[in-house]
Amino acid sequence: MSVVVVMVGRCDSVHHGLPDRQGVCTYPCTLTQT
């Protein structure tokens, strides 16, 4: 199951996020639970 949610975290090359002023990124993340 893949759930797409909006997470706030650090900028990762894996997750293409939008950098904020303080370097905080808001990007759509695909939560894959194993």
UniProtKB/TrEMBL annotation:
Top-level taxon in the UniProt lineage: Eukaryota
Protein name stated in the entry: Uncharacterized protein
Organism encoding this protein: Brugia timori
